[in-house]
Amino acid sequence: MRAMVRQLDLPEMSTVEELCAAVAERAGRPVRLVPRRMRLGEPSGFVERRTDADVIHFEQETSGLHQAHIICHELAHLLCGHLAEPPDPDETAAEVQLPTIDADMIRLVLGRSHYDGAAEEEAEILGAELTRTLVLAPGAGTTSQLAPALEHRKGQHV
Fold first, then answer.
1. CA–CA gap between residue 57 and residue 158 (Å, rounded)
2. pLDDT tens-digit series, residues 78-115
3. Which of 54, 61, 63, 130 is deepest in the core (most CB within 10 A)?
4. What pLDDT shows up at residue 157?
5. Are 22 and 29 in contact (CB under 8 A)?
């Protein structure tokens, strides 16, 4: 896993956005970040594979450190090849009308592959390694690592 992280050739002081750009370049597909308030029962993050991009949805009502961890976990799914290929845009899909089901929930269920325990474990390990490149960069001391964890939901320190 560390070798895969080294192959990304990240600068020392990487940001989540720089990490997304490196993964996008490696995959040949854009990676977009979408913060949102997750509903009860939803995971704290997930990847939606669209024909034009990979979209990472992540919980907006949490600390910056937790957001980075969620995003890194989802990037790990992309790097490990856990997602199915997007549908061919030239194929005509049958249109289904489901007015009682929320469109976001349909995308969540249909857009994500079922990951087995091994895939989740692999993504968690690689995601932790990716997070370490962001959080444990030179010059980032203990105080700067703990501060995001102490943020109030509205961005105020407690």
1. 26
2. 999 888 776 565 554 445 555 565 555 555 544 444 45
3. 130
4. 47
5. no
Asked if residue 80 lies in contact with residue 126, where contact means CB atoms within 8 angstroms, the answer is: yes
- Point out which residues pair with 49 in neighbouring strands: 54
Contact at 8 Å (CB) between 10 and 133? yes
Which residue in the block uniquely carries the two structure tokens 């030179």?
138
Query: Is residue 79 a contact partner of residue 97, using CB atoms and an 8 Å limit?
Result: no
Buried b (16+ CB within 10 A) or exposed e, 34-62: ebeebeeeeebbbbbbbeeebbbbbbeeb
The Cα–Cα gap between 10 and 13 comes to 8
Q: Which tokens sit at 80? A: 């490990």
Looking at residue 19, its pLDDT comes to: 92
The CA distance from 29 to 54, in Å, is 7
DSSP 152: -
Q: What are 37-60's pLDDT values in tens digits? A: 999 888 999 999 998 999 999 999
